[in-house]
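note to self — DONT lose this again. spent like an hour looking for the file last time. sequence + predicted structure for the chain T wanted, 577 res
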Amino acid sequence: MKWTIGTKIGGGFTLALVALVVIGWISYRSTTGLIDTAQQVDHTHQVLENLDLLTSTMKDAETGQRGYIITGEDSYLEPYNAAVGQADQILKEVRTLTQDNDRQQARLDKLTPLITDKFAELKETIDLRKDPVKGFEAAKQVVLTDKGKTTMDEIRKVVGDMEDEENSLLKKRSEDSQLSVEQTHAAIIWGTCIALIFLSVAGFSITRNISKPLNEISSAAERIAAGDLSGSVTVYNREDEVGRLSRTFSQMNHSLQDMAAVAKQIAASDLRVQIKPQSNKDVLGNAFVTMVDNLRRTTSELAEGVNVLASSASEILAATTQVASGAAETGTAITQTTSTVEEVKQTAQVSSQKARAVSDSAQKATQVAQAGRKSVDTSIEGMKKIQTQMDSIAESVVKLSEQSQAIGEIIASVNDLAEQSNLLAVNAAIEAAKAGEHGKGFAVVAQEVKSLADQSKQATAQVRAILSDIQKATTAAVLATEQGSKAVETGVKQSGEAGESIRQLADSITEAAQAATQIAASSQQQLVGTDQVAMAMENIKQASAQNVAGTKQAEIAAHGLHDLGQKLKRLVEQYKM
């Protein structure tokens, strides 16, 4: 039978109620029998009392009769007069009390005329005693006939039979009453014992049937609440609440074991797990599904970003290395150009001295003009080389500026990835906190992701600071390059003017004095311009040194960014998807 716990408990109470009803019914019947027996006993006692009263009344009538016959005093007739009315009432009472007993009614039918005869005999003697003529003797003669005695003996016999009948009934009813009492005691005692036995057995069975599995389920629940999912829950093949509860607890234990296994796989960086929620209302299962999907998506995006970062870092490293090499070559060229400018300066000084000596010797002026022309040609060629190298430096600096901007964009992307990773770590920590004890493993993963995001932000900040220094140095290099280009253009122009002067000097020796003066002035201007070129080249040299130092810092930062990209790549590769 498929009984529920409520049905079983209700059955136990019903059994107790039935036992109480049976005992109550038996007690009621026994009590009713006792009451009936007691009423019958009382009825018998009433009959006996009336019979005794009837005998006593008849004796009083005889006593009154004898006293009056002997004394003739009317006062002795009081018992007789009282007995005359009382006897009829007693007979009527006895007849009413014994109306269900035919034998007693028959005896009453026999007793009534005897009492009438007795009272007639008594009245006759009393009347004779009252007669003044007949008097005492006449009454005495009637008494001596024994008629009254015979009648009284018959009355006593009938009354005795009636008393014997009632005593027999009284004895039987007393025995019935005692038997009823004994039966009542037995019924109550045995009924109570049997009811206690049945109720004890039923209570023990119901309690054992309910408490034992509930204790086992409670122990399993306490073990699960303490985080121990290694055990199993006993499943009872029952259709009541205990069976359903055991099956539900077993399903819950298996579900939690599955969730724990999933959490261990996630903690081991394995995101290939497949989670099937128990239902749409499975909060923990749906949260794990969402968490794994978010981790997969975030890890994929992070992997893509790390790949982009690693690739960009490699390109930046290669470009920075190239820029550093170009900057070193530029420094060497600038050093050579500075030496050349120093030589031009010395040549200009010599040209100035030669121009002062032109007025002393025209021949020397021609030679000086030729030497000056050669020097100017050499200076022009050197200035052109300087201009070419300055153009190369400008292009390198522009490329360095563009690459610095690309690095800034990549750093912004890395910073966005770090912010998203940090936000994901916070969300993951919140989900892990909601999961309670089962989310501790995932909380460790979330903490590692957050630490990685913080390291990425710190590295991004360092690279951004270095990049800012590089951009400042690049800007200074651009300005210095522009100034150098202008100075080179001025030097080329001045060299052209010097060449033109020398050509004019070669063409017109006659105007040597004027040409010497002009050459001296041009030489002086050339000397000043050469000094300016020398100063500009010194500035360019310093800017180039700063550019080389900034490029070295950019190269170091690129190495750090490259190492960071490789580290992020290794961390991301730990997750299996």
